[in-house]
Amino acid sequence: xxxxxxxxxxxxxxxxxxxxxxxxxxxxxxxxxxxxxxxxxxxxxxxxxxxxxxxxxxxxxxxxxxxxxxxxxxxxxxxxxxxxxxxxxxxxxxxxxxxxxxxxxxxxxxxxxxxxxxxxxxxxxxxxxxxxxxxxxxxxxxxxxxxxxxxxxxxxxxxxxxxxxxxxxxxxxxxxxxxxxxxxxxxxxxxxxxxxxxxxxxxxxxxxxxxxxxxxxxxxxxxxxxxxxxxxxxxxxxxxxxxxxxxxxxxxxxxxxxxxxxxxxxxxxxxxxxxxxxxxxxxxxxxxxxxxxxxxxxxxxxxxxxxxxxxxxxxxxxxxxxxxxxxxxxxxxxxxxxxxxxxxxxxxxxxxxxxxxxxxxxxxxxxxxxxxxxxxxxxxxxxxxxxxxxxxxxxxxxxxxxxxxxxxxxxxxxxxxxxxxxxxxxxxxxxxxxxxxxxxxxxxxxxxxxxxxxxxxxxxxxxxxxxxxxxxxxxxxxxxxxxxxxxxxxxxxxxxxxxxxxxxxxxxxxxxxxxxxxxxxxxxxxxxxxxx
Length: 532
Ligand code: CAO
Known about the structure:
The chain is α+β, with helices and mostly antiparallel strands. It has helices at 85-88, 192-195, 223-228, 233-242, 260-269, 276-285, 312-327, 340-352, 362-376, 420-435, 510-525, and strands at residues 2-8, 18-23, 30-31, 36-41, 45-50, 55-60, 67-68, 73-80, 106-110, 120-125, 132-133, 138-143, 148-152, 157-162, 169-170, 175-180, 330-338, 382-385, 388-391, 397-399, 401-403, 406-408, 411-412, 449-453, 472-476, 480-484, 492-504. The strands form six sheets. Strands 7-2-4-5-9-16-14-11 form an eight-stranded antiparallel sheet, with no helix packed on it. Strands 17, 20, 23, 24, 25, 26 and 27 form a seven-stranded mixed sheet that branches. The chain is elongated.
């Protein structure tokens, strides 16, 4: 027998007047128990409110922007009790009015206000899927250069999916995990909680398997892009069901949030022909590589091994390098610079300034020369932002520094306004701080071009990886004496510096790259050219 029931906002902890950011149903929809109805977002968490009843939505009493508290009316539902013999046999019993008996919801827990810190590395994840947590239990540990902070749970529940990993950098608002909320004590009882999880039959006390890519038409899902996408648990679940890679979508909801309609429209359109904006967004989010799984090998079968965890900086730089390598269409152009005269000048300058403790390496001259080359070729001092190229009018040059903990890139700000001696001194100071692990974030930020020098070590050429969002990087190896013959008759020995310029082919063409390299090499050959 059908009855009209009021579905109200359940117990949502201490939250009051929480804005509704999504209404997931409309009149006429047939819903099942645990189907999500609305998404609400407080400053600490995003929660989906599921239905406690099955039936057909008669009227939705709420809209996006409304503020709700416990007991607020969400909708009127024509309840379908069929198939529940116990109820059917007792027709006189009215259903409890809107008895939303502490149903479970799925909350997104976000990084709270952490002051002025942004992009703070996650150094520990303290929970795993299936863990029961209470409000204030620590979830993750963040470590900035100044402080280590634990982020506590804003409410109790069972951890469903962890959306950050050690080594990720997070800022306020980033989603840490999803939490199946409601009375935690009910989690061991029946299953409404598990019904909202991606794997329908799992008990919430059981660790949930990590999401697997469905075999739907959309192809293999890029899990990193999927977990970083701005979407609620129900939308994620729908995307899994439809085989849609959330990383490929542009959200049309508030603040770019991906909503149900975006997923449905994408699934209808099919994966093979994304629109220009969808493809731009795919490239912006790093989505969709159809790769074989990483080989799993039991190395102990072949001999003794030692397992050594990667250092924190290595993990962070590995993630950045991997993204940059995969997302930027790199090309590397090699060239040689004749630095015979410049080397003589460098040696002379160092002699003259010996008493002042100044010792310049070739890198200081290259940083200065780069600023002139960047002024002549502005698209090398730029960043891609969607369909726009951001041309920078500042010349902050990063240099790769090898440290015991891994690779870091300190930045010399306004290198165009500094002399070579000042650049050399600053480089020495920054390199020292880098080796001691004392660089501050702002000493590694804002670079517009990078030089990576292996000149003190060796090698001839290499293919440096661009330091996104920059569009080019200059790699330099060890100089060597080479016999050259400009006219094919006479020859001379010249000190030669091998240059390897990697450039983003979306922004820079091969001809421009070759011209940049030639100009840069000519500057090093004769710095008087900057006067021309
Ligand atoms: N050719 C020949 N000799 C060179 C040279 C070159 N291109 N560049 C530097 N040298 C010499 C220096 O003059 C110095 O010689 P002396 O000891 O006789 O004075 C010696 O090599 C050591 O130089 P350095 O490495 O200490 O100084 P630098 O200014 O060239 O570089 C720094 C500083 C911090 C960039 C460097 O120490 C470093 O960390 N390099 C590694 C960068 C790196 O790892 N890049 C790869 C990134 S991609 O994975």
